[in-house]
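As a next step, we paired sequence with C-alpha cells, yielding the entry below.
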Amino acid sequence: MPLVHPEYKVAVVQAAPVWLDLDAGIDKTIELINEAAGNGARLISFPETWLPGYPWHIWMGAHAWQVSRGFVQRYFDNSLDYDSPEALRLSTAVQQAGITAVVGVSERSGSSLYMGQWIIGADGRTIAARRKLRPTHVERAVFGEGDGSDLAVHQVEGLGRIGALCCWEHLQPLSKYAMYAQNEQVHVAAWPSFSNYEPFAPALGSEVNNAASRIYAVEGSCFVLAPCAVVSKAMIDELCDTPEKRELNHVGGGHAVIYGPDGSALVPKLPEDSEGILYADIDLATIVMAKNAADPAGHYSRPDVTRLFINKTRMQRVEAFALPIDRSENDDLAHREEM
C-alpha cells in the first residue's frame, strides 16, 4: 500500500504578549487558538516565552535596576507551572478547540525557570514539554538549561513528525543535525521579537534570524513554522524609563514566517508592528522531493567521515537509591525482629 501523506492547515502567531500577566496572557492565547481552529488550522505555534512574554528587561539595564523595578519578581510569579490551574485551563482550551498547539512558555519548576515549548495534543494531553538546551547570553541569568532529551521529534497522528527549537538554538549545528536525523517533517522555530538593539546588532535582527529559519527548512527538508512576538507600546513604556533605553528597543519586531522544505516563503509577512495569524496549507508529500535531492542525515551523509554522538538521557538533579545491606546487617535485623 502506498504512503499517505498528511495535508492540513497550519497557523503561526505574530502578536504582542500580555507582558508579565499570566492570566491575561492565557486569555489571549485561548482567543488565538479558537480563532485558528475556527479557520480550519490543525496546528498552531506561538513565539518563544509567549507566556508571560520575553524578559526584555535583562537586555535593558543592570540586575539591580531589574530588581528595583520589580521585573525579576513579577517574571517569576507569572511564569507557568505545568501542574497549575492556569496550565489546566490552557490544555482544556486546546482540547475543546481540537487543535494541536506549540506554546512558548517560561516554565516555573520549583524555584527555577526554564525556556520551554509546551506541545499540547488535540486531546489536551502533553506530547512534550521541552526546554531550551542553553539559554543565550544574558538569558542565563534567568533560566536554567535543558538536556539531550529535549532534542526530540514526535509522531503526532494526522500531522506527521513534529519538532521544536527556539531562537538561537537554530544557530547550533549539532542540535539541528540531531533533529534532522529523527526525520522531522514540521518544525516550530519560535522567536521572541527582532526589535532589540536594532539596527546596531544585526545578529539579533530579522534578516539574520529569518535566514536561520529558512536554512533550517532547506537543510532539514521540512516545513518551518516561525512564530514571532511583537513588542507593544505598553511594553516599551514600562521598560524604557530613560531616553537611552528607548534607543535599545522599539515597537514592532514581528517577523513571523512560514517556509516550505525547498526554502520557499509560503505566505507574505505581516507588517512588523501588526498582530495576526499566518496560515498555510501544507502537504508533507513535498518533503519527498526535497529529500530526494539532499537528505543530510540520510543518503547525503558520510558517517564514515563525520558522526554525531548525543546523550538523550533526562538528567535528574537528585537520584534516590538504597545501598545494599550486607549479611551481618540482615542477621542483626532478623534478631531484633525476634526480640
Remarks:
- Residues 194 and 200 are 12 Å apart (CA to CA).
